[in-house]
Specification:
Chain A: Belongs to the sbp family. The complex is a heterodimer of chains A (110) and B (288). With 110 residues, chain A is mostly helical. Chain A has one domain. Chain A is globular, with a radius of gyration of 16 Å. The two termini of chain A are 25 Å apart. Chain B is an alpha+beta fold and 288 residues long. Chain B has a five-stranded antiparallel sheet with strand order 3-2-7-1-8. In chain B, strands 4-5-6 form a three-stranded antiparallel sheet, covered by helices on one side. The radius of gyration of chain B is 56 Å and the shape is rod-shaped. Chain B starts with a helix and ends in a 17-residue tail after the last strand. The interface between A and B is large, with 65 and 64 residues.
Chain lengths: 110, 288
């Protein structure tokens, strides 16, 4: 419950406080958000499976974000930033879908 | 490594659970599990379905370390999500665009600028052209006005002013006749007089002078004028004055008739006697 509240508060703060993001970080923000979403879906699934562990969740969340940003950063340096970020989004999207499928099975039994 | 990875790769959650419990005995907390949940309780939990765990986790709200850490991370996620959505909807694609896209956009903008510059150039040329042509019309109009003024001065329909001379012929004896004044006028014209006025009568091309009835005075264009005859003449003073004063000229002739003649130059002569413009009955302009 508190976790859900955290998400809601985050969205509200982001929308109304309008924090300035440093220009350096800006290009990686969308990818980082998608990676974090992936971690969150993974965590939700683990919770439904009864194997949720907050430490694992923290590590996976942070590493997902960092790795995704790193890949895009590297891609930008190599000149294939657009393609690589597309690739990252595709991979994360597939994982999100598969996790969502598992969650759906748990919640709706279907 | 993430939960999803582990979950996705291992097919049996139970096995996974065991491994985790072995690795992190103190920290394993099942989603819905209370902070104090111990291993024995958890071993009982597998009977719970996922849905039950979800409900348990959601309600009643419990403050546990797991909940708090997840809340913090989700807060960060929500923040990032909101910022990203906001900046994407804020100012189009530019904010989050990467370098090569920006370069492409810049190129397109340059092209567009170039095209607009060309268009602007064309339009400016057109404007210059139009201005020139309207200038020409304006110029023609000005010239027409100027010409009208000049012709007006010649025809005596407008007042004129400029440098010139004043000649006053005082004829107390009444000896001065029309032909003498005509001589004077012609002498003045020959010397370049541009506008002439005798007393209150403007002298123009078709001016005629006649002797007054009874040998007294002179009529100019039918207007009787009397001495002193005051000529106001616009022209170059240096030419007009000598023309009158030459030996055997107008002044000498008049003085021979016992008249006194005074000629004075002036920088500003105003010829303000006017004549009405007459519309010719038969002659018509043959030009446009």
């Amino acid at each position: 419950m508190i976790a859900v509240l955290g998400l809601v508060v985050g969205v509200v703060v982001g929308l109304f406080v309008r924090p300035e993001v440093p220009a350096v970080v800006e290009p990686y923000l969308p990818i980082a958000v998608v990676a974090a979403l992936d971690a969150v879906f993974g965590g939700l699934r683990a919770m439904l499976d009864g194997i949720f562990d907050d430490k694992v969740f923290v590590v996976s969340f942070l590493s997902n974000v960092v790795v995704a940003a790193l890949i895009v950063f590297l891609g930008d340096k190599l000149g294939v930033g657009a393609q690589l970020s597309t690739g990252v989004v595709v991979v994360l999207g597939i994982r999100i879908f598969s996790n969502a499928a598992a969650i759906r099975r748990h919640v709706f039994r279907a | 490594m993430s939960d999803a990875d582990e979950n996705g790769e291992r097919n049996t959650p139970a096995e996974q659970e065991h491994r985790l419990r072995r690795e992190l005995p103190a920290e394993v907390v099942s989603g819905p599990g209370a902070p104090g949940a111990q291993a024995p309780e958890q071993s009982a939990e597998p009977q719970l379905t996922g849905r039950q765990r979800l409900v348990k986790g959601l309600w009643p709200p419990r403050v546990s370390r797991a909940q708090l850490t997840v809340a913090v991370l989700l807060f960060v996620l929500g923040l990032g999500l909101a910022i990203q959505v906001r900046s994407t909807s804020d100012n189009s694609a530019l904010r989050g665009a990467r370098q090569e896209d920006l370069v492409r956009i810049l190129d397109e903008l340059d092209d567009r600028t170039q095209r607009l510059e060309d268009e602007k150039q064309g339009l400016e040329d057109q404007r210059t052209e139009l201005e020139n042509s309207s200038d020409q019309a304006e110029e023609a109009r000005k010239q027409t006005v100027e010409k009208e003024r000049q012709l007006g001065i010649l025809a005596g329909t407008v007042a004129a002013q400029g440098p010139g001379i004043t000649m006053t012929v005082t004829d107390t004896k009444g000896a001065v006749e029309a032909d003498m004044l005509l001589d004077a006028i012609q002498e003045l014209r020959a010397a370049g007089a541009e506008a002439i006025q005798v007393n209150d009568v403007r002298v123009v091309a078709n001016t005629y002078l006649t002797d007054g009835t009874g040998g007294k005075g002179v009529s100019v264009d039918g207007h009787k004028i009397s001495q002193p005859y005051r000529f106001k003449v616009i022209g170059k003073p240096q030419d007009l004055e000598p023309a009158l004063n030459i030996p055997g000229g107008v002044v000498q002739t008049l003085e021979k008739e016992q008249a006194t003649v005074a000629v004075s130059r002036s920088e500003k002569i105003v010829v303000d006697a006017l004549r009405a413009a007459q519309r010719p009955d038969y002659a018509r302009s043959s030009s446009q």
